[in-house]
Amino acid sequence: MLIGEIHTGLVQHSTALSLPEMVQLLQLREGAHVATSVRPTSYAASAEIPDGVDCMLPSAAHRRVRAVGTMLSRASIIGGRVIQASAAASVETSAAGRRLAWPHYIARAGRLEVIGKWDPADMVDGFLRPRPGAAAEEERLEPGGIATRLIDRVQMAEALDRSPPLRAARTHLRWAVHIDEARADDGLLTFTVDADGQRSLEMVLGSQDAAEAEGLCRDLALHDWLLTTVNAALDAAHTAPPGAVPRAARLGPVVEHLSRLWTPGARVAPAMLTAWEQLERRPGFTRQWQSSIAAARDLLAVATFELLHTARPAGAQSLTKT
C-alpha cells in the first residue's frame, strides 16, 4: 500500500514568483532537475529527496510494529503563489524479516519495509484517524514532520521577503491507498475533513492507478486549500467591523491573487480523472468554489461602491432622483 502527507500554504512573498524564481527556490538538490510547466498556470517541482526513517508504524490498536526505509519528499510551487511539500512511500512486508544495512534501503528509495506481522487496515486507521490525545510510547512514522521541514526550508529562503498580500493558514492532507486489482476499473475514494481541520483521503485502487495517486492527492490538496482560504476570507469579511475598508482589505487580495489558480485535474494523470469526477460529485469542489468566489466578488463590489460613495467630493451632485 501507499501512504503520504501533503502540506499546502501561501508563498511568503509580496508578489507572485516568476517561473525562473520558482526554479531557483526549488533547487534543493545540487545538480538535480526542477520540473516545470506553464499551462494552465506556472508550475515548478523539485527533484525528489530521500529521507531515511526507522520507527514504529502508526497503529489504531497501538501495536508495536517496526518499519525501516526511505520516504520521498518534494516541494512544488503553483502559479507563483502557492507552495506544497509532500512526503510519501509504499509500505510492504520485509522479505528478510529483520533490519538490514542502510545501503539496502537507500537503493529502494520510497519504500518502507515492515519487520514483523502487521495489519494494513490497522495501520491506515492509525495514520488517517489518530486518536486525539493518545500519546504513543515510542516514535511513530510521521510524514508530516518531513513535509513541515521541507516547506519551512523553502519559505525561509533569502529570496522571499515574507510580506504576502494576504494571510492564509496551511492545510494538511494525509492519504493512503489500498491496492486491490478488483477495483482497477472503479476505484473508491473517501475524503474527510475532521473537526480539527485535518484532511484525509482513503483510496482503493488497482496497482496501475495507485502509481498515479500522489498526483491526484497534490491536486486535491491544492484546490481544497484554495477553497478553504476563500471561505476563511468570506467569514472574516462578514465578521469585520462595519465599513467598506475592512471588507475590501480582506477580500480584494483573495480575488486578485487566487481566483486564477482554480484548475482542477490539470496535472492529474488521465487514468485518475475518474477519481476527480467522484470528488466533483461529492463534496462538489467546483460548485463550492464558484459559489464562494462569486460571493467574494459581490461583497468586494459592494465594498468598492461604498468606498467610492464615501470618497465623493463635497458638493458633488448625486445621480439618484428623490
From TrEMBL:
* Annotated InterPro entries: SCO2521-like (IPR049749)
Look up the domain of life of the source: Bacteria
The name under which this protein is listed is: SCO2521 family protein
Q: Which organism is it from?
A: Dactylosporangium vinaceum
